[in-house]
Write a structure and sequence with these properties.
Number of strands: 0
CATH topology: Growth Hormone, Chain: A
Largest sheet: none
CATH architecture: Up-down Bundle
CATH superfamily: MFS general substrate transporter like domains
Distance between the termini: 17 Å
Shape: globular
Number of domains: 1
Number of helices: 17
Strand content: under 5%
CATH class: Mainly Alpha
Order of helices and strands: HHHHHHHHHHHHHHHHH
């Protein structure tokens, strides 16, 4: 563990952790609207945008691939400048990317917009973790649940409301409405009063000077040191494989449902449009973050993040096998259960990563490594789903990935118990 940077101890502050997390989460929720909308309507609108279906997978992964680089930038910027200016800058980039979705100038511009969003998300997410750190170890699960709950409320709004708008009024109107809502993130970001001192948020002046001088050389060495620790390595692996599975399922939901349950042109059950029912099901995943996520976070603070992660992974694996073997409404119920578990897994593993970061000399870099591992998994998900996954079949891809994810979590828990 790198100990060259010492973390400022907790100090009294007028900023309440719950308020700080809630307000920061609102900024992120407003900015994520456009990105979440793409997962439900881009596969359906691709033809009108002159984008082939294989390229849809590229677009849905581009923002994650750029984050393999931009997460390191975010770690450096937040450590050097604190949270206020980086969060505002990230919100501005998020708004620009959403506006570009509606321009309609083809694949190249859309790709640029997706990459711009990836950079924005690196900054937004780092700000969210920094807000959680203000609460300390005892409440990291609850605050992480609150963080992702509010963020995914934004995602749920996008897929539910966006799917409805798309089915009724078309693509251009939908993007215009979403961009208008995203613009509201800027005044909220400007209004946030960040604490002057908070646990594991700031480093001393000497360390900041050293970080500024040697950052380029130190960044990769810090990440390599993290990977040399087996417990951290398997934690990163657990986050990566779970987001890999989530990326596959979320990006292929509309295609999977249209192929398996379609009873008429552009409709599924009871005459409901493909985009609308996809939005409803994916909305369950996002809404569960705001309804189930905080509760799971509280439970994980009491029983431990590792135990909650194991139980949720076991249940999600059962749900995936139900999804690939059952039909009609039973398959929909299995997908419903998976989305609930996916929400809880994200909260518990994120809280576990926050807990490890609070004990590390370079907390920003540890979170950067964790988010980068997750981004790698979620980037590969849509790419393989629309290429190899489509060739082998989605059921096999779903089931195999779920089993691997469960085994990785089991290995992480085993190492954690040995390290106690």
């Amino acid at each position: 563990m790198d100990s060259s940077i010492r973390v400022t101890p907790p100090a009294k502050d007028t900023v309440h952790p719950t308020h700080l997390v809630a307000t920061t989460s609102l900024v992120i929720a407003l900015c994520i609207l456009g990105d979440s909308l793409m997962y439900s309507i881009l596969p359906l609108e691709a033809g009108h945008l002159d984008i082939s279906l294989p390229l849809v997978g590229v677009l849905l992964s581009a923002n994650r691939l750029i984050r393999l680089i931009s997460n390191g930038w975010a770690s450096t910027i937040y450590e050097r400048f604190g949270p206020r200016r980086p969060l505002i800058g990230a919100a501005i980039l998020g708004l620009i990317s959403t506006v570009l979705y509606g321009v309609g100038w083809g694949f190249a511009l859309f790709l640029g917009a997706r990459m711009l969003w990836g950079i924005a998300w690196s900054g937004l997410r780092q700000g969210g973790y920094q807000a959680v750190w203000h609460g300390g170890q005892a409440t990291k699960g609850r605050l992480t649940g609150l963080l992702w709950g509010i963020v995914r409320l934004g995602s749920a709004t996008a897929v539910l409301g966006g799917g409805f708008l798309y089915d009724r009024y078309g693509y251009t109107t939908t993007i215009a409405v979403v961009a208008t809502l995203t613009a509201a993130a800027l005044p909220v970001a400007l209004s946030i009063q960040w604490p002057t001192t908070a646990h594991n948020q700031h480093v001393d002046n000497k360390a900041k000077h050293e970080s500024k001088q040697h950052n380029k050389q130190m960044q990769w060495s810090v990440w390599l040191d993290l990977l040399r620790t087996p417990l951290v390595r398997w934690l990163l692996g657990a986050g990566a494989i779970q987001l890999f599975l989530s990326g596959i399922v979320v990006s292929t939901t509309s295609i999977y449902l249209a192929e398996r349950l379609q009873v008429g042109e552009n409709t599924l059950l009871f005459g409901i449009g493909v985009a609308t029912i996809t939005g409803l099901l994916q909305g369950v995943r996002w809404l569960s973050d705001i309804t189930v996520g905080p509760t799971i976070g509280r439970l994980s603070d009491h029983f431990g993040q590792s135990l909650m992660a194991l139980l949720l992974c076991l249940t999600s694996t059962v749900a995936i096998f139900g999804l690939v073997t059952l039909t009609d409404l039973w398959a929909l119920l299995a997908l419903f259960l998976y989305f609930l578990c996916d929400s809880g897994i994200n909260v518990t593993l994120s809280a576990a990563a926050s807990g490890v970061a609070m004990h590390h000399g370079r907390p920003h870099y540890l979170i950067g490594a964790y988010t980068t591992a997750g981004d790698l998994g979620s980037a590969l998900g849509p790419l393989l789903a629309f290429s190899i996954g489509r060739y082998l079949g989605l059921p096999i891809t779903y089931a195999f990935t779920a089993i691997i994810g469960l085994l990785v979590v089991v290995r992480y828990i085993t190492l954690q118990r040995k390290s106690r």
